[in-house]
Amino acid sequence: MLTTEQLSDDLMQLGELLQSKKVIKSATPIIDACSALKRNGGKRCYIKGLELESVEGDYIRGREWDSVLDVIITIDILVKDKFCFYDVDKIIINLEYETLHVNDSRLCKGAWHFDYHVDMDGTGKEEEYRYIHPHYHVHHGGHKVKELDSYGDMVILKSPRLMHHPLDAFLAIDLILSNFLKVGEWNKLRASTQYRMAVKKSQLSWWKPYYEQLGSYWLTLDNSDGRNAQSNLLATRALNPHLL
Fold it and tell me: What are phi and psi of 195, to 5 degrees?
């Protein structure tokens, strides 16, 4: 596990690399985060307003907006003690983007919100929500979108493309119902033996092998000499292209 010093050094080097490659406008937000990280003992990593160099490409849907896109990232990660998955307290990652409308050059925006945030009630128990609320989730929008005068000023992008586990008909229906039925109604539906058995069979057929293949990646990586091992690495990276 990385120490605070190692974490800060790695982050600083990443900022220098991204700036030297002209990927970001300035490494200052990362430098500031490293300084704060050392002061708080490695318990909070807060990178505010990290701006990419203006990007241009096949990102924007439709022809209403300029093709040049400004992308801004804010990252706020809080841990209880150790900077790792098992000790996380809060993760908020905002991806914001803006560009000009082609007709009148008004500023148009959009945002994605990646979140790990478990709210607690006054008794120390996890807060109950009316709708499903996975600990790790992503949704479109955020405070920057709320600031728009009109949602007609919201930019629609092809990105990001977010990986998710596979869905068959049963899993797809369950996913959609879980987001549009209140938790109580969804749980009553899942209490049905017929419903539970159908979804469970699909989970065993689709999710079990999916997560087993992802989970076996690091074991395979340690023994990647054979043809089967190399094939498994390639197949797993196809499921999660971010794996190294």
Answer: -65, -50
| Residue range(s) defining the domain that contains residue 225 | 163-244
On the question of a cis peptide bond just before residue 241, with omega within 30 degrees of 0, the verdict is no
Q: Locate 10 and state its tokens.
A: 């790695």
Domain contains 62: no
What the block records as the tokens of 13 is: 């080097």
pLDDT, one tens digit per residue, over 5-23 is: 998 999 999 999 999 999 9
**Mode of pairing for the β-strands spanning 68-79 and 55-56:** antiparallel
Q: What is Dmax (Cα atoms) for the chain?
A: 60
The pairing of strands 107-117 and 44-51 is unpaired
Between vectors from CA 60 to CA 69 and to CA 237, what angle results, nearest 5°?
95
**In DSSP terms, which residues pair with 113 in a beta bridge?**
94, 139
Residue 95 belongs to a domain: no
Domain tally for the chain?
Answer: 1
pTM over 0.85: no
